[in-house]
Amino acid sequence: MFDKFPILRATRDGIKEMEDIVVKEFHLTIILNEHELVTLLCSPEKLDFLAIGFLLSEGLINSKRDIKEMDLDVEGNLVRVATKKPQKFPKDIPSKRLIGSSGGKGASPFAGIDTQSKIDTSIHVSPSEVLDLIDQFVYRSELFESTGGVHGAALCDTKNILVFSEDIGRHNAIDKVFGECLLRDMPTDDRLLVTSGRVSSEILSKAARRRTPLLISKSAPTNLGVQFAHEVGITLIGFVREKRMNIYTHRWRVLSHGN
Amino acid sequence: MFDKFPILRATRDGIKEMEDIVVKEFHLTIILNEHELVTLLCSPEKLDFLAIGFLLSEGLINSKRDIKEMDLDVEGNLVRVATKKPQKFPKDIPSKRLIGSSGGKGASPFAGIDTQSKIDTSIHVSPSEVLDLIDQFVYRSELFESTGGVHGAALCDTKNILVFSEDIGRHNAIDKVFGECLLRDMPTDDRLLVTSGRVSSEILSKAARRRTPLLISKSAPTNLGVQFAHEVGITLIGFVREKRMNIYTHRWRVLSHGN
């Protein structure tokens, strides 16, 4: 995940030569049914999970059965995925920064998801369980956070981390988690998703597509993230820091102390 | 830049109701020569600068003279830009996470820039000047960082911040700075660009297009960011923290103590 580089370390008092590690950036092109779909900037691990998770997040596949075959070519910076049914090729692919044309023009940014029924899974969690999960999460992320500002994501039950991924992109880290869950036949609709990054409407939409009822972030949500969580039925907990957290939506899943 | 929401603040000891601020997320669709180009997830400030900066970063315009007219419609979530010459419409638009098709297939991620001559501007900076600039930068960013995890970007000379922007996206913050510089006729080729965010190859490419010789980040670069900075002639300084920094490339622009 890292390269070494000779650098200069400078302070107000002087400059000295040393070696430092730098996080790797990889470019992965996804080819869907012989059609070049997108090139992702990512960390070079779990590329198969990333590809499948990306297709899931974009609604291009919905289950493992949709996948006919997958061929990862790391040397060639590409992965080929074939689906059983011919996939309608999207005009544009939304991303962290971009929304497909259909989402523009003042339309809902949640196009393609808002027709789903509201998530009403009655899983519950206590503040102490959330803080304990974040402790585990920070422990797993520690090296990467300190050296490269890498983002982490995890699928959890109320006690333990079940799947963990990291990536230079917060979107990719989540896609890797959901991709791994799909390929390993792990359900996501009664679990908690933990992310280190900010929760925008797009991050929310990833959890909504997988019908994950609880989304927990170390960082802040945006207003549209909060609004979307409210609409789709996701309990959104943000700014989990040290001993506290903010509960933004669907607070009924959070048991208060003593319950 | 913020909305207020009722939230629950939870700790191990209990839960209480309160109100908290949440950063706004805005969706801006750029229409270039009557063609829908892209929708950006951004903060709802300086949208004209963002649109122009985005077009600059994508190489769709290169100077103020290329712009025939611009019409910002905030209510409609869109901005219309017309160029003097008919613009060849790109098949794909690179983003924080995506690279256009032409950049995939193992080709250089820096397509369209690598033919430029090396940046050799002989501006110099001392470690103390960098630390003082970052102090100013952090002071300007303080509210936003603490409340919303918003990214900042600034164009500076060796002593002062000249232009400052913030946005929920680190790419947008930089595009806003360069867009403002273009519209205000401020040169960028003998300045320093400061960013709060990680320096990937894409961030480097923005500075390279504007021929800004020094790029300073509070965060880490990626290996391709370092490699690209080396190739195009940009002095890359990262991990500026408290009293120290890492100089990754073209160290000759950094004057050691006493010079």
Would you give an account of this structure?
The structure is a homodimer of 259-residue chains. With 259 residues, chain A is of the alpha/beta class. Chain A folds into two domains: 26-94, Ubiquitin-like (UB roll) (Roll); 127-253, Cytidine Deaminase, domain 2. Chain A has five helices and 13 strands. Chain A has helices at 47-57, 127-148, 170-183, 201-209, 223-232; strands at 2-11, 14-23, 26-32, 35-42, 67-73, 78-83, 98-99, 151-156, 161-167, 192-195, 214-217, 235-241, 244-247. In chain A, the strands form three sheets. Chain A has a six-stranded mixed β-sheet, sandwiched between helices. In chain A, strands 4-3-6-5 form a four-stranded mixed β-sheet, covered by helices on one side. In chain A, strands 1-2 form a two-stranded antiparallel ribbon. In chain A, helix 5 links the parallel strand 11 (214-217) and strand 12. In chain A, helix 1 packs across helix 3 (170-183) and helix 4 runs parallel beside helix 5. Residues 94-109 of chain A have low confidence and may be disordered. Chains A and B meet through strand 1, strand 2, strand 4, strand 7 and helix 2 of A and strand 1, strand 2, strand 4, strand 7 and helix 2 of B. Strand 1 (2-11) of chain A pairs antiparallel with strand 13 (244-247) of chain B.
